[in-house]
Design a protein that fits this description.
By secondary structure, the chain is an all-alpha fold. It has one domain. It has 12 helices and no strands.
Length: about 300
């Protein structure tokens, strides 16, 4: 099998798995925050074992670098907590669609953090996504509107940690970033659960099905997907990988229809709005692909 073709298949397997995380919010019959606590606990445990047996160093360049990683981990924890809360209140399809607004926030965050030029095109695409969300939510009730608020906040948090991770990845090895970020996410969620009076036997009151899905979420969707993604990015480049990740909402909505039968509870407006959002995602991907080729052509020979 052609080497690059193999890694392209791996990209879509990873995106499919990530698209499944929203579905798991419905398949696991536990509170949203309990799901997040178990997810990070299992992911950190799996990652910790891997690092122990491979004897990887976890030393950071400075205390400030460690603080930045831990701070980003807290943002990741809040992202997951709000994401699964949105799904708990509504549907997996709505949760993943809200994440589509991440692009809008990246357009103003990246120029600040990465010191790059502001893109009017990306900003306009983000605004169209917002219109799509408005169209989707036109006939929502109070519960769905609350879910929408959690979902949109989750998207802002996702954009925040994505941009900061892009900046830090230039200096910090990915496995160190993941270990410290996931560990601090676990500490943050644990502290929240303690103050909320949720660190009790309820954490472990679950069915066999819940346990199996949690293991799948923590090991396959988090730890394993991370390791594979590093290898794919190394072989094919970050741009190809990030371009393909734009298909995640499509996978999630299709999975939600076939597994959760959400087509029976979601109306025509939802799918029209969803179609608009997916169209914007595709246009944005094509634009970036064209821009990347143009930049490559203009790059002077050394």
């Amino acid at each position: 099998m052609n080497s690059k073709f193999k890694y392209h298949i791996l990209i879509h397997l990873i995106i499919f798995v990530w698209g499944f995380t929203g579905i798991l919010g419905k398949l696991i019959h536990l509170d949203a925050y309990i799901i997040v606590w178990h997810r990070v606990l299992i992911a950190v445990s799996g990652l910790g074992l891997f690092l122990f047996f491979t004897k990887r160093s976890l030393r950071t360049a400075s205390r400030m670098e460690l603080l930045k990683l831990c701070g980003t981990g807290v943002v990741i924890a809040l992202h997951w907590m709000t994401f699964y809360k949105a799904i708990e209140l509504s549907t997996a399809s709505l949760g993943i669609l809200c994440l589509s607004t991440t692009t809008l926030h990246v357009t103003w965050l990246e120029p600040i953090v990465m010191k790059r030029r502001f893109s009017i095109f990306e900003f306009l695409m983000g605004l169209i996504v917002i219109y799509g969300i408005y169209f989707v939510s036109s006939d929502f009730g109070a519960k769905e509107i609350e879910a929408l608020k959690y979902g949109l906040l989750s998207a802002l948090l996702a954009a925040t940690f994505s941009v900061f991770n892009a900046r830090m990845s230039q200096d910090v090895q990915p496995y160190k970033m993941s270990f410290y970020e996931l560990s601090s996410a676990l500490v943050f969620v644990t502290i929240y659960m303690l103050f909320a009076g949720r660190m009790n036997s309820e954490l472990f009151e679950m069915t066999t099905s819940d346990v199996l899905w949690l293991l799948f979420l923590g090991i396959v969707c988090t730890s394993v997907a991370f390791f594979i993604s590093i290898e794919v990015v190394k072989r094919l480049g970050a741009f190809t990988f990030s371009l393909s990740v734009n298909l995640e909402p499509v996978y999630t909505i299709l999975l939600a229809i076939f597994i959760l039968h959400e087509d029976e509870v979601l109306g025509t407006d939802f799918y029209l709005g969803s179609g608009l959002i997916v169209l914007v995602i595709v246009l944005n991907a094509l634009y970036k692909n064209r821009l990347a080729k143009k930049t490559k052509e203009l790059k002077p020979l050394s």
